[in-house]
Amino acid sequence: MDPDPVEMANEVRSKVILHWNCRGLAEFPEVIRLHGGHIQEIYLKWNRLTTLPPWITELFNVTNLYMYGNRIERLPAELGGMSQLTVLDLSANRLELVPPCIGSLSNLKSLFLSDNFIERLPVELSQLNNLEILSVSGNQIVALPEWIGSLPRLRELYVDNNQLRELPNRLTIAPELTMISVCSNRLRYLPLNGFLSAPCIRFDANEYLNYVSYPLLFQLLSQLHTTVVHDRDCLAFGCFKTHYDTNVLNTNIKLYVRMKELFETDADIIIELPRQLLKIHEVCENVTCSLWELALRKVYTERYKHTLDVTVSPANVTILYKPLLKKTKLDFTLSTSYTLYNLLTNGPTCICVNSQCQQPIFTEAWIIIGVSRHAESTIMIALCCSRSCATAFAAHSSTTINLHWHTID
């Protein structure tokens, strides 16, 4: 039976929060346009809507719009005119593209886009300076843009059940993050640096993720309120196996790690390093760092103070990151300089784990690979900025049983 228009009008006039869930609505009710100028929250979940009307921008007082579980395939550009919106829920619809107009919702605090068919996020979303919660779980996203780490108020990021292979390095310097959830993806590694805001990180069921970095391990242990983990499933269920995805061709450095020499029950494994790392060295290699890497370190330390402090007992990692110059904008015109700019703004791959050093590391490092005494059978890597730092760390660290490794094609 069709809804009574008079009854609907009376209900709209009498409400500030409109709950019209599960009513079988195929169109956004125009009665809201005629009589609902005062409405502040609209719930139209589990209906049959395929789009929103252009006149929705006339609803000047609506701050919360919940459209979960409809059949929405596209959104009008006029949606961007609802600058008063603080919550927008478009989860469980049929969106393939996120319209750029959402980037105009300057007061938006929560954006829910889970369970759609989205493959990428438009750069216009980087304008959402008030965004605190972003949920894009259950889509088809292969890569997250680096600018997500620059959203100044982002606290919670949910990207479970996608196709992610890596996380943006810039997330490590995001100032307000308290939660990152990236379960059931195809991650091969997590960022190697410690996270500035020490967020809770959930990354269960990433079967190709088989190692973790030295600083990140201790941040994870501190969240578990323990200094020793005897079962690596405590860190993340379904990770740290010997799996390696041989179907993906890329240029990332891959290392063959000999586990059988130390643990007869464990197979040797292959680990893949983040794409930022272009050259790596063993502790014994006495070579000079490239001018490119030295230039990156010099420019970065002139503009930012970025330090890493790892306390083993109790497990804790403290990160300090702040601009030293009020104006840190760099003007670049050459393509190589754009690469330089991106590396600097995305933050270093890691800070040297030698506590007496604190040099940033971008594209070149001396690597120590081992099994942590604090997380049994879990492969851990530590990055140093020079042979001397790597030698000092290897000599004085009691947290790692070193393993042999070599690069592979």
Report on the structure:
The protein is 15% helix and 20% strand. By secondary structure, it is an alpha/beta fold. The chain has helices at residues 5-14, 30-35, 214-223, 291-303, 335-346, 387-396, and strands at residues 17-19, 41-43, 64-66, 87-89, 110-112, 133-135, 156-158, 179-181, 200-202, 212-213, 254-257, 269-272, 279-281, 304-311, 316-323, 350-351, 360-361, 364-372, 379-384, 400-402, 405-408. It is built from 6 helices and 21 strands. The chain has a 9-stranded parallel β-sheet with strand order 1-2-3-4-5-6-7-8-9, with no helix packed on it. Strands 10, 13, 18, 19 and 20 form a 5-stranded mixed β-sheet that branches. The protein has a 3-stranded antiparallel β-sheet with strand order 12-11-21, with no helix packed on it. Strand 18 and strand 19 (379-384) form a beta hairpin.
Protein topology:
Elements: H1 5-14, E1 17-19, H2 30-35, E2 41-43, E3 64-66, E4 87-89, E5 110-112, E6 133-135, E7 156-158, E8 179-181, E9 200-202, E10 212-213, H3 214-223, E11 254-257, E12 269-272, E13 279-281, H4 291-303, E14 304-311, E15 316-323, H5 335-346, E16 350-351, E17 360-361, E18 364-372, E19 379-384, H6 387-396, E20 400-402, E21 405-408
Parallel strand pairs: 1-2, 2-3, 3-4, 4-5, 5-6, 6-7, 7-8, 8-9, 10-19, 13-18
Antiparallel strand pairs: 11-12, 11-21, 14-15, 16-17, 18-19, 18-20
